[in-house]
Amino acid sequence: MYEDSWYNFVPDHTHKRNPSIPQTSTTAHRRRESLLQQPNGSKQTDPIEPLEGLLEEPETIISPPEATLSRRAKSYSDFYHVVCAQLSKDAAAEKKKRRRVKERNLDALMVEKVEKVDRHRALPQLESFDNELIEASQQQYLLYRDQLEMTERHLDTLITDANGALDLLTSLTHSFRAVESQTSSFQAQCDDLLAEERRLQKLADEVGTDLHYYAYLDGVTRRLNAPGASRLVNHESFGEILTNLDACIEFMIEHPDYRDAESYLARYQSLLTKALHLLEVGFTGHLDRVSSEISKHIIATQSDSARHALAYGRFEEMVLEADGLVTNAQRVISSCFDQLGNAIPGKSFDYYSNTALSIFSSYSDVRDRDLRPMTQHDLEVFRKDIKDINVETACRNFIKQCYERSYDEASLFAKIFSIEPQYSADPQSAYVALKGHQKALVSVANIIPIATTLQPTLQTSELQTVCNLLGWITNEYLLLEYDEEETQQYAVHCHDLTARLLIEHFWPFTDGAFDAEVTKSISRATISPDSLKITPVVNGVASSNAHPITKRALELLAMYDQAMPKERSSSPVVFRIIDETILAMQRVESRLKSNKAANPDPDPDLFMIKNLLILKNGLVSLEFGDVRPHPTAMQHFGQIWDALSPQNWLGLFRGIIGGSLSIGLWSSATGTPANGKAVPPRSQAQPEQDANDKLDELLRQSIYAFTQRWGTLINAARSGKRGAKSLVTTEKELDEKLLTAFGGQPEVVAKLKEAIQINAQAQKEMKAEKGGR
């Protein structure tokens, strides 16, 4: 549209010289050619004379000051003086330089006088010079004007072309809109056709898919009813059959309104049952073939290591040789149970679970039959150890052997069936299924053989042996931790077995043994006359002069704590030991009171305080995990005494007028007012009463009765009442009784004396108040 020559139209006037102006090389001014000369200027008629010479100073070049070497500073303090000196020199040089420039400028203004010429002769020449100067000064602006005019013309042309292009685009837009309006209806019809095509295609796919669930029936029926159908279970394609049958059954259940859905559902379920039966028969037959070969070798050898290698290593190798059959069995089991043996609900859960249970039962029968020689050998070794060593060691060895056998069985079971059943109370779990097939072989779910073997032996053994065995099991398998991975797996397995063995068998058995021992040695114990006295303390041991029944109760508490974890310390067995001991001590107290006239020693109340404090101390020690068979001191007496609160007795006695002191003590303990009414003793509370509360109640009654009687005796001795003993004799007799009962325990003796003095003072003040009234 545009030519390049248009943009190169501006002529080049820069390098052209004006021929009318002569160039002289001899002039002193050496004036250059004027840059304002027009390229097409007219020729000058009048010659241009050269200007007279001007006096000009030669051009001096202002250069930077010469570099000077500054004096080096001697030190940091001298550096300041050196810098100041240098700055002074630079300022003086600059001032001198400015003075020279100023003088040179003044000299340049001193021009020589030009001689006067004739004004009439020089005027035309001056006018021509003015015109030339004006034209030269406007030369650059004229050039710019020409360029702007040309650019304006080009821009006008561009605007015209752009407007034409916009008009063309507008017309095209109108044309496209017209075409679009004409084709919109056609496009809508095409969209409707495409949507209909997609709908029909989707419907065809759905119909084809649904027909697939119907068409699969004939093919799978022929395959499962063929003469060689039993061989299908040995191949991986059998798993595909089970998957397809599951899909067909689920489809028929989800679409009951489809044609013949109920009939097809029944037929598919029948085929699934047949397929699972083929798998069960095939796997059972494979186990029987392996068992027939393994069992002969196990019976033929007498080496324990060889039997173990055959029963586990060789058996595993031969079973896993039929990898396709084992894979299909694992597929069936994983369809109804997860990795831990928990049930997986599904449409065909019952079919798969029944087959899995049948496979588990067949496997348990085979393993029990193959390992029967080994289990019989373990029983013979156990009976021999009972005779040769002792019952406790024999039981320990037997438990260790059973745990190792169970761990090996669990590992083999996991490798064959790819499942590790854990304890579960769900009746549909694999654990319950395995537990239902109880055999002589110990397994992860079958621990009954251990209990049935050990309990008859332990039943005839001493109770201490049973407690030692249970304590060893608890410490060996429930509390210890192992770091190595393999050892840790074995420890976890033994932990689970031990927990179930104790909860289901040994703890109930031990509780029964303790109940029998309590009945024998406490409830039905014979009270001999020799036991109706308090002997001196031996070697400072607080329980050395306790009643034999109390000593036996302490022994039973210590053994029970040894056999049971702390979580079972609140067992009914502990309460029964305490309760039966209390009843036995009350029977002894009754006999002592009935024989008091003939034999005043020992004091019944002091006897009860002594034995009940020992029993309370043993019970508190059991609860806090500090049970000792023979404690040397009553370390919990302070806690017991603080519970009794003898410091409050004085105020209690002052508030009681005309009533029984025992009633006041009871009222203080229960928080009820001391109104003189009869309150039932706490010993007659309900059987579910806590053993600690029962002991505290009896201790309060015994301590109060003892301190009240001796407080009365001390008051009588102090008042010189007729028939009363002297104060020295009374205090001496009291000291003898307390030292005999609580020798080596000055804390108990001091607190009892303090209580007697408080009681005596309270009786005295109460008597004075009654007399004043």
Task: Provide structural commentary.
With 773 residues, the chain is an all-alpha fold. Among the domains are: 463-635; 639-773, no CATH class. 68% of the residues lie in helices and 0% in strands. The protein is built from 23 helices and no strands. Helix 4 packs antiparallel against helix 5. The protein is flat and about 180 Å long. Mean pLDDT is 77; it is low at 1-62, 111-117, 624-638 and 643-687.
In short:
The protein has helices at residues 4-7, 76-109, 119-224, 237-254, 261-300, 304-320, 323-334, 349-370, 372-388, 391-417, 430-435, 448-459, 463-478, 485-523, 548-563, 572-594, 604-623, 637-644, 649-654, 661-670, 691-719, 727-741, 746-772. The radius of gyration is 61 Å and the shape is flat.
Unreliable stretches, pLDDT < 50, 5 or more residues? 1-62, 111-117, 624-638, 643-687
Query: What order do the SSEs take from the amino end to the carboxyl end, as H and E?
Result: HHHHHHHHHHHHHHHHHHHHHHH
Number of helices: 23
Shape label: flat
Mean pLDDT, as a whole number? 77
Kindly estimate the percentage of residues that lie in beta strands according to DSSP.
under 5%
Helical content (DSSP H or I, runs of 4+): 55-70%
Q: What is Rg?
A: 61 Å
Number of β-strand runs: 0
**N- and C-termini, Cα separation:** 143 Å
Helix and strand composition category? mainly alpha
Largest sheet: none
